[in-house]
Amino acid sequence: MSAIREAGATMAPDARAALISAFARRLHAFQAQARHFEVVTTVHNAADLLRPQLAPATPPPRQHGPRTLIVLDSSFNPPTKAHMRMATAAVQELASGDGGSRRGGLRVLLLLAVNNADKGAKPAAFEHRLVMMRQFAVDMHDELRGEETGGVVEKQGNTTTNTESEEGGKSSSSTPPIDIGLTTYPFFHEKSASIASSAFYNSAVTSESGGGTSTSPIPGDADSATAPEQVFLAGYDTLIRIFNPKYYSPPIPADAGVTTDTADRRKTPMQTALDPFLTRARLRVTMRTDDGWGGRDEQEQHVRALAEGGELEQVGGRREWARRIDLVEGGGEVVSSTLARRAAKEGKWEVLGTLVSQRVGEYVRSERLYTEDA
C-alpha cells in the first residue's frame, strides 16, 4: 500500500463534515455507555487521510504488544508545536536510548479527557478537537520521518512504504502507531489505571464491550505485569499539580463498611493514588523556563529536592517517586494553545503557522475555530 499526498492539501468540506460527524458519533456512544476509557481510532501514516471513513482503532496483537506506551494527555485546544516537540522527542529518545525501547516496541496515545478537572469544553467542541488530534497525528508521522509537515511524502519513489508493525495493522516502518483515545477521568493516576486495565493494551484483560474500554470504574493493578510501561508527557506546571494534595480525596473511613487492607489504611490519600501510578508509569517532564516557574537550575534543583529532601513526605508523598521523573529540555520560543487561539481569532494565519502543525492550522482556518473566543 502506498500513498502520495500533495503539499498543503486541505480536506474538502464534505470530508471535514463526515469526519466531524464520525467523531461526534463515537463521542456520543462513549458518553452514553458510561465508559471510562476507549481508543476511538488509530493513525498509522499519512495514507489514513485518504480513507473515506474514520480509520478503526487497531489494538496490538496479543502476543506482541508494545513495551512502552507514550501518553500525551492534553485538552488539544488546539494541539500545538509544543505538543509536537514533546511527543516526537519522546519517541526518538525512547527508540534509541540505552535503556529505551526500539521503535517497534513503542506506541503513542493522544488522550482527551471529556471531563477535565480544571478545563471546560470551550471554545472548541470535543469533536473538533478529535479531528485536530487526527490531523496532528498525521503531521507527527511526517515529523518523525524527518520531513516538513505538509510537504510531499518522498519515500522510495514519492511513496510511503508500510509494513506490518509489531503492534498490528499497517504502519510506517519508521513511526509507531498513534492512537486517539477518550477518558472521563480528570487525573493522571485514574487515566493510567484505566489504560492499564483496558483490553486494548493489556492481553491479560478481557472486555465484553471490546475496544479500549475499562472493565471497572477504578481498575486494580493485578494486570500491570502484562501491560506496557506508560510514559506520561507533562509540562513542569503539571508536575507541580500532580504533587498537590488538594487533588486527592481522603481515604475511606474504617467504619464505612468497606473492607480495606491495614497497610492501605496507613497510606495517605496521595500515596493511595500515586503508589500504583508511579509503579506502572514514568513522568517525562518538559521544563518551562519562560512563565514564572523559575529557570532550568531552579527546576532541576526542585526535582533533586523531591528525591533527596523531605518535600514529598511533608505533603503525604514518597521521595522514591522522584526516581520516576525524567526532566527534559523544553523548546526555545513560547508556544501555547492560548497564543494559537488568539492568532486564529485575529486572523493572523502566518502567526498561527508558527504555533501549530500544518494540517491542524488548515483545519482551524477552514472551520473558523476560535473566531469568537481566544
Automatic annotation (TrEMBL):
GO MF, any single term: nicotinamide-nucleotide adenylyltransferase activity
Presence of keyword Cell inner membrane: no
InterPro entries noted in UniProt: Rossmann-like_a/b/a_fold
Keyword terms: Nucleotidyltransferase, Transferase
Gene3D superfamilies: HUPs
Region (Disordered): 147-177, 204-224
GO cellular component: cytoplasm; nucleus
Protein name, entry field: Cytidylyltransferase family protein
Organism (species): Pleurostoma richardsiae
